[in-house]
Amino acid sequence: MDLGGSFIEVNDTYLDVGQSNTNKAFQAQLMIWGTMSVGLSLFLILPLLAATARATGPYQEDFWGVFWEFFSFSVSVSWWLFLPIVALSIYPVLSTTFKKARIRPLRFNRQRREVCYFPEGSDEPIIQPWEELVAWVSVSTGFTGEGVMSTYTFGMAIDNPKTDMTHFLTHGVFTPAHGISKWEAIRTYMEKGPEHCPGKAPYEGRHTFDIERADLHEAYREGYASAIGVAWWYLCRVVTWWRFPYWVAEWDHGYAMKTMPASIAQWSQPLPVEQWAKPSQALKEQTARLEKAYANGQNFTTYFNSQLGAEPAERCS
Q1: CA atoms 218, 219, 225, 229: torsion sign
Q2: H/E stretch holding 63
């Protein structure tokens, strides 16, 4: 499984694992919705409440006169509060894009059986043999006032022989099975090819808006969506500036996809089949044992527990 859409390029030569722009349009919609809500509160709702209170009070002042008085006051005073709020709303949208643009994807070249990694902000690639890559899923447990909470992390370690440093790549997963599934997707790509791996993750853009609208209309025709649901979808898109969030997502996709240097572009070119690197005999033997265990009903965890001399996880009390 490619959970989270991190397989941003999949072909017969290499697999790129990075960050797609999934949910970027939703992030932009939240930004617009938040700023619009604050603006309506400051410049419309508060003047309306003040005008209603004074027009229905003991002095029964003129409603519209009081409304425009408070509206003018809000514009002159609250404007300086509104601008920082707008800036704080825009910051997460831009900062996540700029951060992603500093990081090139991790590239797995199955024909050379090598892995290419760029440390954040560096243009110097680290090339490591595939069979020397170390990957793991870790579990950390913490205690709160209400109980025990566990978090799970999928990680990989890249060794840089030039600097004798190890770079650790980690990200959180929902369960250990999610981390193992991601690793198995990478492993089967390297050992068996792209036909055994999830395809390239789709990216969000202006075309996503058209797809969502077409799916909504089809769901309405088939009876899976109500007229109220359709109206609410259009209202939400109007309030959040129609296609603008999807344009932001498309900009994010184009801006954050940092190009590879010429040396890695050359390294990523397809090779004649006779020049493909071959797996080691030790890996062939372990792969055969693993696939035999799968065929006998074991899974990744129970197989390696048995190899370590431990009881399978399902049998532990």
Answers
A1: negative
A2: helix 63-101
- Contact call for residues 197 and 185 (beta carbons, < 8 A): yes
**121 φ/ψ angles, rounded to the nearest 5 degrees:** 80, 5
Residue 80 lies in a domain: no
Over the stretch 52-91, which tens digit does the pLDDT of each residue have?
A: 877 777 667 777 777 787 777 777 777 677 778 788 888 8
Average pLDDT over residues 20-24: 82
Q: Report d(CA 64, CA 54) in Å as an integer.
A: 11
Domain containing residue 297 = 280-317
Q: Give how many domains the chain has, as a whole number.
A: 1
Q: Name the band, by pLDDT with cuts 50, 70 and 90, for residue 309.
A: low
Element (H, E) at 191: helix 176-192
Q: Are 174 and 152 spatial neighbours (Cβ–Cβ below 8 Å)?
A: yes
In terms of Cβ atoms closer than 10 Å to its own Cβ (0-12, 13-18, 19+), residue 186 is buried
Sheet holding 148-160, edge to edge: 134-143, 148-160, 165-173
Give the Cα separation of 292 and 8 in Å (integer): 31
Q: Which pair of tokens denotes residue 267?
A: 């390294």
**Cα 310-316-317 angle, rounded to 5 deg:** 145
The gap between the terminal CA atoms of the chain, to the nearest Å, is 29
CA–CA dist 6, 186 (Å, integer): 11
Q: Which amino acid is at 33?
A: W
Q: Is 268 within a domain?
A: no
The answer to whether residue 313 sits within a structural domain is: yes
pLDDT digits (tens, 9 = 90+) for 247-275: 999 998 888 887 888 889 999 999 999 99
